[in-house]
Every structure is written in structure tokens, then in C-alpha cells.
Amino acid sequence: MASTDAVKAALKAQHIETPSWAYGNSGTRFKVFAQEGIPRNAYEKVDDAALVNEVTGVAPSIALHIPWDKVDDYADLSKHANDKGITLGAINPNVFQEDDYKLGSVCNPDPAIRAKAIDHLKECVDIMDATGSEILSLWFADGINYPGQDSLRARQDRLAEALQAAYDRLSDEQRMLVEYKFFEPAFYATDIPDWGTSYAHCATLGDKAQVLVDTGHHAPGTNIEFIVAFLLRQGKLGGFHFNSRFYADDDLMVGAADPFQLFRIMHEIVRAGALDKAANVAFMLDQCHNLEPKVPAMIRSVMNVQEATAKALLVDADALEEAQRDGDVLGGNAAVMDAFNTDVRPLLREVREELGLDPDPLAAYKRSGHAERVREERKDGQAAGWGA
Amino acid sequence: MASTDAVKAALKAQHIETPSWAYGNSGTRFKVFAQEGIPRNAYEKVDDAALVNEVTGVAPSIALHIPWDKVDDYADLSKHANDKGITLGAINPNVFQEDDYKLGSVCNPDPAIRAKAIDHLKECVDIMDATGSEILSLWFADGINYPGQDSLRARQDRLAEALQAAYDRLSDEQRMLVEYKFFEPAFYATDIPDWGTSYAHCATLGDKAQVLVDTGHHAPGTNIEFIVAFLLRQGKLGGFHFNSRFYADDDLMVGAADPFQLFRIMHEIVRAGALDKAANVAFMLDQCHNLEPKVPAMIRSVMNVQEATAKALLVDADALEEAQRDGDVLGGNAAVMDAFNTDVRPLLREVREELGLDPDPLAAYKRSGHAERVREERKDGQAAGWGA
Amino acid sequence: MASTDAVKAALKAQHIETPSWAYGNSGTRFKVFAQEGIPRNAYEKVDDAALVNEVTGVAPSIALHIPWDKVDDYADLSKHANDKGITLGAINPNVFQEDDYKLGSVCNPDPAIRAKAIDHLKECVDIMDATGSEILSLWFADGINYPGQDSLRARQDRLAEALQAAYDRLSDEQRMLVEYKFFEPAFYATDIPDWGTSYAHCATLGDKAQVLVDTGHHAPGTNIEFIVAFLLRQGKLGGFHFNSRFYADDDLMVGAADPFQLFRIMHEIVRAGALDKAANVAFMLDQCHNLEPKVPAMIRSVMNVQEATAKALLVDADALEEAQRDGDVLGGNAAVMDAFNTDVRPLLREVREELGLDPDPLAAYKRSGHAERVREERKDGQAAGWGA
Amino acid sequence: MASTDAVKAALKAQHIETPSWAYGNSGTRFKVFAQEGIPRNAYEKVDDAALVNEVTGVAPSIALHIPWDKVDDYADLSKHANDKGITLGAINPNVFQEDDYKLGSVCNPDPAIRAKAIDHLKECVDIMDATGSEILSLWFADGINYPGQDSLRARQDRLAEALQAAYDRLSDEQRMLVEYKFFEPAFYATDIPDWGTSYAHCATLGDKAQVLVDTGHHAPGTNIEFIVAFLLRQGKLGGFHFNSRFYADDDLMVGAADPFQLFRIMHEIVRAGALDKAANVAFMLDQCHNLEPKVPAMIRSVMNVQEATAKALLVDADALEEAQRDGDVLGGNAAVMDAFNTDVRPLLREVREELGLDPDPLAAYKRSGHAERVREERKDGQAAGWGA
């Protein structure tokens, strides 16, 4: 078991990136319920993300979604972020919201559309150059809805070609993370449905390509921490998109549906030493708050990751390894459960106080008056949302 | 095994209702890809449904969605339908697309919003009175996204109250079908998640309330034909919303994902004599065509139901029952598989010819010039879609 | 929020029944790994159950499985249990391990086999009369493996007849709980696959028939606490078979796979006042320890239920209801999560000390020398197991 | 579309291997229902497999399971098979039925047990040398039941070591297929849970290691044909274990649960030219007949694969590719469905007649008197089964 000081140090050094799109309006195919005080542009999203960092101390970057967060001057946006105490993080290309992409983007049967999609990927690396972002975060909505709609095999060939083109555009300081998704918006076959597909492509591409694990993108019953442990072993875990789900949608607050699963994932991270910055694993949130207010939901989510991490750090590694070595099934399980059953909130309050923060980030948020202020400031104009 | 004449007679008498909303634009939360020639109002949706009936001969009614299909004069819309050879079918209230319904409609914690939703249900029965529709088709998007968001129990009490209010408004010629849905758009708990919940409410309400089985609304691995057989035994199968899905979305063309399952469902229907009009089981489609053109997709869907029905009618009931009585596992299975493996398309061509139709409905559709005509006629104005 | 005294009182009054079969050897279809010190008969199973009660204080009864636990003199077995401080609990008929039951028991196409199965059910009520057990706990392995193997509908008729026969045999102090199971050992259709099927049969039978919820018997993604809340509303929740599973097998220690789910279930129980003995909900364990030693695994399981119960009792009901009334999504969720995140182990140590027990049941078990003693005492003869 | 002659030629050349263990008794953890006429040893299993080949013409080899099929003289067993018209196929090591393997075989924390397991793998290659088998078919029951029971990562290291040892033992004419399984008998984590894990290990090992796809070993909703197409693209599809399942067990007759899925899999095989012997894809059955008589069930299974193959061969490739190129969603789907909806049984009757076989294999089996003969001949002695 790590010393309390080591645990605290790890928790203070944690870096959880929040996504710009979570600050905008979102919903289901049935309805988007608009909220008040929603940012109208990338600058205001940065402001919200900065506030989340201000009260939690561990969310010092914001991921961007292009073109949703397109600005004229990325250096200026980057400076705005820095002024607010955060940086611009991963760049997420969007190749699913134009009419051209109806039958896919990089896997589209039409070569002209594929070329357009690839151009957008390269454009996003241009933006990375401008912002200093190190991660190109790739998710494709590509797939097919019916058997026979397109060739599964041909689509893989097209995918490989596009990934190669994007890969070749990366500088040595940049890397690309390839996300997989079990289903949606394609309903018969998605072109990167599982970690194996992403892994195989990344292995072919080289060291700058790694797998991105979105915790909401798996078949029912999938053991996600196994995947995490396996990818770490292979040196191919690039990072996470954290969120949670009970059944099929992947956008609830991380840790809300299965906090034990989140703990088990962080346990594998800690066991592999991958919390360390040198391991280069990106911890990013990717979730949309359809009903709950967005900024406090994001604060809560960051806290949920912190709590799972703290519990993982508290596992008594010696006791665990001894039990495992001895084939003591109940003992090994108990070592893990003891940590999970610990209430780490007092520890995290201490960590925050030592960082000069309010021990209660949600109370600090409420006291900040941010919600009231933006409700007034942002009442005119077009609230950001998917596609806006 | 029924005689060929009896099989043909049953196929000619089949009645499959198509849904108005399937003729409008639809999509996923990621993107709605607009199509050309989309109806702009209820009248034009009726026109499209009438064409589906014209070429298939077995789709003589259209379900309406209120308020999407609101018109000033329902008698006039009804007359328009009749002129085109079809009737207005089930009325589907919509209590999920107004901002008030963010936390639910009939289960909302706010009594004023519940009252508003109940009023809409009653308004829909008024419309039934005007259109002569006999079915009030109830689906609620109600549910919660997080444990603790609301009381599961209190929501059931509110639901029961609303169902009772709608039930009391029905005339003796009218009935209400209560649909259940496993998940979406609520992600932690839907208020009617399974057939058991719907059944229990309907049993309390009385004979005019029955369960509606949407084939896309079940947990993975659920044996839907068991539910169908069970509800028929209890006299509580009101009807179907047909569609299909591979994993989680429920809007693919019926029979596209698992034609064997559709056959098994129709097999239970045939075995229970429930294809007979007297059984009062409504066979309705409920699907949205996000990528494929809507009218031919609907024609294909109707044909898929016909083919499954024809196969079910061809099961050798004597051989099946003998094998079942004898505990002949392979024999019983073979009786069912023999029918499923039969190519019933020639039989259905004959049926259509005997009905005076083109044996190939899709060819007839293409020859009709409908697609080209509506592309031109409907190019101005607002295409119908969810919420329009 | 209940006072600490009230919480403690509730925890002291808790009654968790352990199953006799969990003390015998068990395994998968691939292999049963025998353990040492396994009981050889019902008396020795009672001894093990008594020890679990001795160290936990809240497991004062043992469920029996007939014929596995058949004895010549049930009064004597009952006296043995009483001498050890426990009572004989639910009686579980076994109609799945004789060759006759290959195609089912009460649903078998052969009337002679059905009659035999019904006789066994009645025999089990005779045993209840002899032991004073109040619960007949019914689970049927019945079902079919292939479409067409048997008639789904006819099997329901046979099931209804058998349930009625057993029901009619019950005295007024006895009740029957009807368990459902999603799959296994039947692979195409089980005859009671879900709570709805069990509920519909119980509703027909009357007040002495109630639904038994086995927490491992649901489709992936099923919201079990919804079912619990719904059945409580209908007055039809008879009790639980607690265990847990990650994907498909239902025999891991309760709380091991998803402690948050167990907490949510207990939260619904507490909210409905169903922890109270007057509510007549039976809390029974049903799990098999294939790898881990059985007695400590059972102690751990009892503790897991206690911890989930303690957390559920700690939910601040006023704060929860206020948030729910106000539509405060994050607030309602927080009220629930605050309780779940609390470490209740210190509270339970206090509860145990106040009951005169060792605060650490597993330590007390180890100190008792039971494992060593039975390893020696029981080394000859046939260890109990499924079918033995 | 291939010419009828080409289709027939492909069907005549098909090679489907049946598994020795399917001819022995099997069951669930609840009960093994013994059948009559069950083989008592490897020679009699060969006899049954030979009969399946005799009536179908396309099942000319039998897979062996060691130690279940251990014999003193493999050359003699091989000669016996040849005399009966078949050959000995894949060798399947069994490292799950000894008490030592309780916590795993090649992943066991105890190095001595790992060494023992590796020795068994090598012994199986010795047997391959003796029988001329070219395939070492590896499935491990390894895994853990509880979080913390063992280190996920350490187990992968041990697995890699064992796979390497087996790999190094192979001659150039031999290869090893690495099977994955989603769950069971381990319930928290299996050590090779998915194709990605198997693929990554095989990629490290080299060309003689390939992935084995068991059609019953996936999470719900998994698109198996995608995996097949992907592995073919990577040159890593070693073969199949065919069977089917509705929910979670993987031992129903192939094609029984979802014949459309089987067709889609064979469609990918045909599209990739992998039906050709040069593609080196092994088509093996792996299923257990718990209720149905084993030899006719196996015949039926072989016929099901034939029918799916025939349908796949009938897909109009030109029409399909044109529709795919044009983005014609309905057209592409129709090309596939047209083939699936074709009744290929007449074509297969012709194929059999041209091979000099009875067009109806099940009728030929019945006429053969095999069932009656073996019932008498094998009534004494110990029927083969798992572990026997």
C-alpha cells in the first residue's frame, strides 16, 4: 500500500480532460432539451472548462471538437485558455454531420467523400500544430445498417488508407488515438466495433497510433478492465473517454452507473503504473448531460474519477499479491474490496485543501455565482450544441 | 398443414398498418440525413401510405402521430384516406417533445405537467372519435437517467392514474394499447420497461387495455415469441409495432436483422389463431428509415411480414404436434424449420396476382413514377420529420 | 434519515437465510472441484449454517433442497437446527435431476411425468408441515432447447395446472414463491423466463403465491430494483434469492459483481418499508462457491448484504424526496450516492459488538477452528453436492 | 453469381469436421441425461463420425479431445478411421478437468501446474505427429471468478509463455488455432475473452498461430461476420468451431438459433474466397447434444452448414457490388436477402445424388439401422462423456 503522502501526491498530479461538447446542449434522437447559460462558442466553453478546473484542481485541459469549436485564430483561443489556467487538449475531428457522410466518411464507397474526410483529418492536425495539442482523437460514425449495404472488407481497406494518411501527417510530438464503438449510429456493423479492430490497425501504423477506450462503447458484459490491462501490456493504451451507461447509451456521468467498474479500471491503471505522466495515458471525459446542468455534472464526474482513483491507490498491493500468489481467492478479492469500501471523500477533501482549494468543489461552484452570471450573459445568440 | 387455398386466403386477408412517421425524415442523435420527396403534412403521408397499400394489397391503414399529424379537419383527412383506398388507423399521442416533458410526462413529479399530458391523451381520443380509429397506441418516453433522480414507486402511481384517466375516456369500441420499452430515451429506468409492467397495468384497467409488443424493445436474448404466446393465452396481446434491430436501435426494417425470429413470432400467432381478425391483434409497423428511401423500404417491410406469415402458415401442424407429443426434439424442430426454409416468394406472387396486383410490388412502385413525382411536387416547404 | 439507533435496530433485526446446497460441492458443466471438510448430509449442512449465524448474528435459518436434504425424521433435523440456534427455512423441491425430467417436469408433454413432479411438490409441502417451514420455493428447470421442440402455450397450461395443485395443498400459514429464470438449463425458452410470467401466474393463484426474485436471473441490462419496486407496489414480492454475476452465471457471492446494484435493490426495499418483518419478504441467499471455501464465502455474502442494507438505511430520505420533488436531478442522485459512498463497516462492527458478537465475523470464523475440525471429521464418506 | 456447376463443385468439395466429444454424453451443470447407444471409446466415436460422413459426404474428419480420446496406438486409430473413410483431424488438449487446474492451467499462479499444462500441450503435438493431424486446437478454461483473485496482467504473461512453448513444438506442417471465449467456466474474466486477445497473441507468435472463431463465444449483439471478414483480411482466420446459441450457451446445433447469421458468416467466407482449401480455414463443429440424439443431430448440423454455404454461393456478386458501389442500400441488402430466401434444399439433393449419396441424409441414417445396432452393441461398459 502506498503511503498516504504518495497517494496524495498522485491525486494532486492527476489530469482529467473535459470535453468542450459537454458544455453545449445535447439530447437524444427524441428531443434536445435546451438549458440556460449554455456557451455560444469555443471561448465560452473554455470558460466553463476553466471553472471546472478552478474548483477541482485536476481538470487543466479541454478537448475540442472540430468544426464545432472552429475559431479564426487558434493561437488566440489557446491564449484565452491559458489566461484562464487551462490548455487546449485533444482535437476531435467530426466527419459525421455533413450530408456527404450519410454512407460513411473515411469508409464511404465514394472516393471523393473519402478524400474530403481525410482532408478534414489533416486539417485537424493543422489545428493541433496551432494549438499545441498532442492528441488527434479519432472516432468515426462509419458503418452500415443492413447486411449487403456495403462490403465489410472493402471498408476496412478504405479505413486503413485514411488512418495511414492521417498518421503520416503527424509530427513526432503528436499521436493519434483510435476509438472503437460497438454500435450507433450504425446499427448492423460499425467499422471499428471493438478494441481488437482498433488495435490491429494501430499495430500496423506504428508507435504514434494507440487505442482509445471509451468506457461506454462495449457489448453487455464486456470486462473493460481486462482490455485496459491488456492494452497496457501491449503498450497500446492511448487513453480513455470516460462516461457511463446502464445499458446502451454511453453518456451518463462517469461512475454513475457502475462505480465498482470504474474503480476496477483505475485499479489496473494503478497496478501498471499508468497513472504516471510518463505512461502517456490520456484521461478524458466524453459525456453529454441531457437532463442535468452541465458544469456541476462535469465537476461531479471529475470527482467520481478522483474517488475511483483514490480507492485504487489504497489497494494494499502486498496483501493482494500475497493472496494471489497463494491462490487465496477470498483474500485477493478482499484486498480489492477493502479499498473499494473505503470512504475516500475525507482524503480528497484534504488533498484539495492542500492544493489551496475548497474541499467541496460543488459548494465552491455554487458560491462562484457562475450559473447565474452566464444565464444572464449568454441569453442572446445561439447556444452551442451538436452541429452548432 | 392448411390447404394452399386456406393459406392464400389468410395471406389475402392480412392487414399490416404502416406508420405516418416512417414517411418523414428521421435519424439518430448524431444526424438526420434529409431525403428528397418527403411528405410535408399528414395528407401527403397518407398518399405515400396509400401507395404502399396499392402495390402490396395488405396495408390498408395508416397510424397517425399527434401532434405531428395534426390537421384542422380529421373528417376531411379521413375522407382523403378513403379516397385513396385506405383508412386512418391507430392514434399515437406524443408527450415527449415539449420542453415541459424533460423529466417525464404522465410520470413527471410536477402535477401540472402530468395534467397537461393527460389532457393530450384525452385529446387523442377526441381525434379517434373524429377519425373512427379504434386504437389509442400509448408509448411514453418517461423514465429517469440516474438512481435517485425520482421515485420509481411514485412514478408508477402517477402512471396508473394517467392510464386510468385515458381508459375512462374510451368508448366501448375503442381500446388502448400500452407499449413497453427496455431503454431509451431514459437510460437508468424507463417507467414501462417490460411486458410485465404493461400487463400488470392493463390487467388492473380492464378489457379495453392491452399490451403492445414492439419487437425492438427488449433486452438482448429475450424470447419475444414466448411473450407473444403468453399474452395470447392471457387475452392481453393488443398488437405489434414491428421493426428490427441487431443490437440496440429498434428502427430497422422488420425482418432485416433476424428473419427467423419474425417467423417464430408469426408461428405463435398462427398457432393461436390470432391472424384472424376476430382475435383483434393489430399488426403495425413502427420503424424509421434513416438511410434507405422510405416508401420502398416500407414496401419491403410489408413483404417481409408477408413472407414470415406465409412460412408460419406452411408449418405442418400435424407433424409438429405429433413430434411434440412424442418428445421428438429433432422432429419438432424439423417441422418448424421445413416451413422456414421454404421459399414462399412464388406463393406470394400468386397471391398478389389473384388480388389483381403486380406480383412484384417494388417493380410496381418503380414503374409508378411516384418517387420522381413527389421529388418535384414536394421540393418546396418543410419536409415532415420528428417534431415537425 | 433514520436515527443511528433506528438504523442499528434494523440491522440487528435483519434475517438472511442461507441455502443448504451452498455448503456442498458444486461446479460448472466442465468440472466440479471438490473441497475438503464438505458436509455429508443435512445435519452437517445445518452445522455449517449455524456457524454462519453464530458469527454474523443475522442468518438464523437454512433453506433445504429436497431430495438432497432428505432425512428420515424432519422433526429431529428441526430439533438439531434449533439446538444449534437456527431454524429450517424454505423448502426447495428438485424436479430436474431425474432422467424422467429430460423434457421437463411440470411442463413435460407426458402427463405421467407431470403427475410425478406434482407429487413431489406436494411431498415438499408435507415436509413443510413437518419442519414448520412457511415457504415453498419453486424453481423449475423446465424449458425447451429448440423452436418447435414443444408448444410454448401448452406448456403454460400444464404449468398453471401444477402450480394450482401445489397452491391448493398449502395451509394458510404457508405460501409459495415462484422463481423465474432468463435461461439455463433450457436454452431456447424457459417456461418462466421473467418476472411477468411469474407474476401473472401468481396473480391468478391468489395471495399465497408470490414472485421470487433471483438477482442472477435476468437479461443483461435489466433494472432489477425497478422490478423489486414494482412487485412491492403490487404486493407480490415474496422474497429474494441473492447472488451475483458479471455476465451469465448467477452463482457468485452476492455483492461481488455489482455492489451498487445490490445497494439500489436494498434502497427500494428500505423505501417501501419492506425490511420490516411484517412485509413478509424473505431474504435468502442462493449461490454456489465453486472455487472459494464455502463457509467463509457465505459469511462474506451475509456481510455484503448487511453493508448494502446499512447504506440503504443511511440514505437521507428527506433530502432525497426534496430533490425529487424539485426535479433536482443531481441532488437526487447525490442523496443516494452519499449513502453508497459511506463506509458502513465501522457501524456494522458496532452493531455486532452490541449483539455480543465479534466485530469481525471472518476472524471469529478463523478462530473457531471449524475448518480444521470438519476437514478431519468429514474426511470419510460422500461429500454432499448437487445430486448427492 | 457463380454458375450452378461452380456452386455444386464448391458444395461437393466442402469439408466439415465433426467433434468426437459430440458423440458422447453431455449436459449442463444441472444434469447430464444419458442416451442409449453412446460410444464407449475413441474407436466407436470414429464409427459414428464415419456414419455422418457416409450419409452427408462432406464430413471426412473427426476432431479428437485428449485425454478423452486417448488410445494406446494412434496409428491404429488412424487406420481405423481411414478404413471407415475418414481421417483424424484437429487435436484438442484438455487442461481443465484435473483438480490441479482449479485456478487455471497455463495461467495458473503455480509454476508447477503451468509446467504440467504445457507438457500436456506438447504431448498433444506428439499425438499430432502420430495421427498426421495438422491442427492443434487450443481452448483454455482459464480465468478468474472475482476481481483481485489473480493479476490479469500476470496471467497474460504466463499465457504468452505457454503459447510460445507450444508454438515452438510445432512442425512446419502443423499450426495452432487459439480459441477465445467470452465467459464460462470463469465468470469474472476469461484469459482469452475475445478475438482481439487471441489475435494479438497469434500476431506475436507468427504464421503458424491463427485465431479460432467459435460462433457461440461472443457477447450479445456481436457481429461475428465482421470478425470473420477482418481476420481473413489479416490472414489470421484459422478456422471455426460452429454451433449456435440463443443467449448464453454455445452448444445448440449450428444454424438452429440464427440461420441468417450463419449465412452471413458463410457469405464473408465466400466473398473472400476462403471456402477454397488453399485458404486453409478449418470448418469444424463444436456442439453438444444434451437432449436430441447425437448422430442425427450431427447430420442435421452438417446439413445446416451446407445450406448456409449454398445460399452464400448463390449471392449475385455482380448485383451486390454494383449496388454497393452506387450506395444503393436497399439494392445491396436485396442481393443478399434474395440468396438467403432461396430454398437450396433441392440443389443440395442434386449435389448428393451426383456424389452417389441418398439425397436425404437423415432418411439414409434411419435406414442404416445404426441407432438400433449401437443401442444393442454398446449397452455394456461405460458410455463416453465429458471427463470419461
Whole-number total of structural domains of chain A = 1
CATH arch. level architecture of chain A: Alpha-Beta Barrel
Mean pLDDT of chain A: 96
The count of helical stretches of chain A stands at 14
Question: Mind explaining what this structure looks like?
Answer:
The structure is a homotetramer of 388-residue chains. By secondary structure, the first copy, chain A, is α/β, with parallel strands linked by helices. The first copy, chain A, has one domain: Divalent-metal-dependent TIM barrel enzymes (TIM Barrel). In chain A, 46% of the residues lie in helices and 12% in strands. Chain A has helices at residues 4-13, 42-56, 74-83, 111-131, 152-169, 195-205, 224-234, 259-271, 294-313, 317-326, 329-340, 345-354, 361-368, 370-377; strands spanning 16-19, 61-66, 87-93, 135-138, 143-144, 175-179, 189-190, 209-214, 237-242, 282-285. In chain A, strands 3-2-1-10-9-8-6-4 form an eight-stranded parallel β-sheet. In chain A, helix 1 packs across helix 12, helix 7 (224-234) runs parallel beside helix 8 and helix 10 (317-326) packs antiparallel against helix 11. The model of chain A has no long low-confidence stretch (mean pLDDT 96). Chains in contact: A-B, A-C, A-D, B-C, B-D, C-D. At the A-C interface, helix 9 and helix 11 of A face helix 9 and helix 11 of C.
